[in-house]
Design brief:
single chain; 131 residues; mainly alpha; Arc Repressor Mutant, subunit A; three-stranded antiparallel β-sheet; 7 helices; globular
């Protein structure tokens, strides 16, 4: 079923912007590197791991992710809640690997960091309008 003009008009602009942000192999690579990191990464270390030599180009892609998908604290970067969900949704892990990743990311609390529900088992659950 193809969307009609009236149904596409109901899609919030923030949803379109958020999904458009993810339409870059460099940005997905940044999210995946942060997902495999044991701790928040400094700009230069993250850039090196992703393999983008040009600092300006890397900064451009990282700036698109900051706030909504990536958190910056004390000059270091880590996945935000929406970034974690994107990594899970785009992972090429087997079912056990995906479950282990999801479990490792939610060990601190039984409450979903996105919706606040206990034992939320949603793999894709992103609030596209906020950080």
């Amino acid at each position: 079923m193809r969307p009609t003009e009236s149904s596409t008009a109901d899609i919030p602009e923030t949803a379109i912007d958020a999904l458009g942000t993810l339409a870059s192999e460099h940005r997905i690579a940044i999210l995946r590197e942060l997902a495999t990191a044991d701790e928040p990464l400094a700009f230069s270390e993250l850039r090196e791991r992703v393999g983008i030599r040009d600092t300006g180009q890397f900064n451009y892609h990282l700036s698109k992710l900051r706030g909504r998908f990536v958190r910056e604290t004390d000059g270091k970067y880590e996945l935000g809640h929406a970034g974690e969900r994107v990594v899970l949704a785009t992972a090429d892990l087997d079912a056990d690997g995906t479950a282990a990743f999801a479990e490792a990311r939610t060990e601190e609390s039984d409450e979903c960091a996105v919706c606040g529900e206990e034992d939320c088992n949603r793999v894709i659950h992103v609030h596209l309008s906020g950080a």
